[in-house]
Amino acid sequence: MAKKETETEKKTETAEKKTKTAEKKATGSKKSEKVQPKSDAAEKLRDFFVDGLKDLLWAEQALVKNLPKMEKNATAPELKKAVADHLEQTKGQVERLKEVFSILGEKAEAVKCDAMDGLLKEAEGILEETEPGAVRDAAIIAAAQKVEHYEIASYGTLATYAKLLDETKAGAFLYATLEEEKQCDSDLTVLAETKINIEAE
Ligand code: FE
Ligand code: FE
Ligand code: FE
């Protein structure tokens, strides 16, 4: 009896520890701590701008790899087509980003975007959690729109920086992609509202 109790206590303790570690991971190490910059931390807005481009290059390349799976898992022909079209557009966006690097005289380097990595992991989970058909289609739209919103925020920010930094040509490229992402997002809204969500319901 006593042994059993100790075992239960131990289990509770481990569970508590696990929760604490998870909380730590989720909120960062110390809540109110001032973060020490890394040795290569951006000092000027231009550096931060280029860092953002590297993050986006990773994100777009990850989408080129992942969108085919979304297309394959979609059922409605309209959704399949929307995803396939945006895949082609995304390939063009990768090239456009590389062009931006070359305009700036910077090396086109992709640096892992934690946010896109997370959004794609979530999208993967959503597929497992939905039956193929209208409900999975609705879930694919939901995941895709989260991706588009992240891209809209990123391109919007970087296009504004480009303007501020007098990088007009680079800015024009970034605005062009921004418009494509916005269009894709609104097309998905129309598709959801006029067809997919209704079928899913
Ligand atoms: Fe994109
Ligand atoms: Fe990012
Ligand atoms: Fe996009």
Description:
The chain is mainly α and 201 residues long. The protein has one domain (45-200): Ferritin (Up-down Bundle), CATH 1.20.1260. It contains six helices and no strands. It has helices spanning 2-27, 45-73, 77-104, 114-128, 134-164, 168-200. Helix 2 packs parallel to helix 4, helix 2 (45-73) packs antiparallel against helix 5 and helix 4 (114-128) runs antiparallel to helix 5 (134-164). It starts with a helix and ends with a helix. The mean pLDDT is 90. The structure holds fe (iii) ion (FE) (3 copies). The site of one fe (iii) ion has 6 residues, from helix 2 and helix 3.
What's the topology here?
Blueprint: H1 2-27, H2 45-73, H3 77-104, H4 114-128, H5 134-164, H6 168-200
The structure holds fe (iii) ion (3 copies).
Q: Which structural category do the helix and sheet elements fall into? A: mainly alpha
Tally of DSSP helical segments: 6
CATH domain class: Mainly Alpha
State the helical fraction: over 70%
Secondary-structure element sequence? HHHHHH
Radius of gyration: 22 Å
Q: Outline, from the CA principal axes?
A: flat
* Ends distance: 52 Å
* Overall number of domains: 1
CATH topology: Ferritin
List low-confidence stretches. none
Q: Could you tell me which ligands this complex binds, including any ions or cofactors? A: fe (iii) ion
CATH architecture: Up-down Bundle
- Please provide the count of β strands: 0
Task: List the main descriptive attributes of the protein structure presented here.
201 residues; mainly alpha; Ferritin; flat; binds fe (iii) ion
Short description:
The protein is mostly helical. 81% of the residues lie in helices and 0% in strands. It is built from six helices and no strands.
